[in-house]
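We were asked to recover a plausible sequence for a given structure. The inputs and outputs are reproduced exactly as logged, with field labels preserved.

PROBLEM: sequence recovery
POSITIONS: 178
GIVEN STRUCTURE:
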């Protein structure tokens, strides 16, 4: 039947030539191509010994930032969770008690905060939605794990350590201010 586009081609079976029937030229040609690649520059890295340099706007594992005084910036407003297209973020808000001013910057904070890394598509919308400078994506990679539960990242993995701050200035400069 004639196709609508008129682009169909009738394929005819062609007899193989004597050289083609020998197969040797094709085999040698294939081997030459393989050998040629042995001497070319490798495109693969020996990860994890050799790590690739990421672009400043690379979107990896999130960090929940602290302010200069070490207090958690997040106020559990929920905007990141609402803006997340993968519904990967959940949290429980709590009121800051007296004496906890050195722990949390705002009167409300996230008692629990969790990102399901199996759902996350690293789009960065949570970072854009945050009005408190609290959540950023970093160039850190997710470690391989053997069970699904390990990919639920809680505050223990997300909040930056007081003595181990994560520099997001490059990301701010190259992405947020753009
Ligand atoms: S990066 Fe995107 S998918 Fe991942 S938690 Fe943030 S908003 Fe959700
Ligand atoms: S990370 Fe930002 S957007 Fe998300 S709950 Fe905390 S303050 Fe709100």
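RECOVERED SEQUENCE:
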């Amino acid at each position: 039947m004639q196709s609508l586009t008129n682009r169909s081609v009738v394929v005819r079976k062609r007899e193989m030539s004597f050289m083609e029937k020998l197969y040797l030229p094709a085999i040698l040609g294939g081997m030459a191509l393989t050998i040629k690649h042995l001497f070319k520059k490798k495109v693969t890295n020996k990860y994890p010994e050799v790590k690739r340099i990421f672009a400043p706007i690379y979107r990896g594992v999130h960090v929940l930032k602290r302010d200069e005084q070490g207090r958690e910036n997040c106020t559990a407003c929920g905007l990141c969770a609402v803006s997340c297209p993968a519904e990967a973020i959940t949290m429980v808000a709590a009121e800051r008690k007296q004496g906890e001013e050195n722990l949390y910057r705002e009167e409300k904070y996230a008692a629990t905060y969790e990102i399901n890394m199996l759902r996350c598509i690293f789009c960065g919308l949570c970072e854009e939605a945050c009005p408190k400078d609290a959540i950023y994506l970093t160039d850190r990679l997710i470690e391989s794990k053997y069970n699904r539960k390990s990919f639920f990242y809680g505050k223990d993995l997300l909040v930056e350590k007081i003595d181990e701050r994560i520099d997001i200035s490059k990301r701010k400069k190259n992405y947020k201010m753009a």
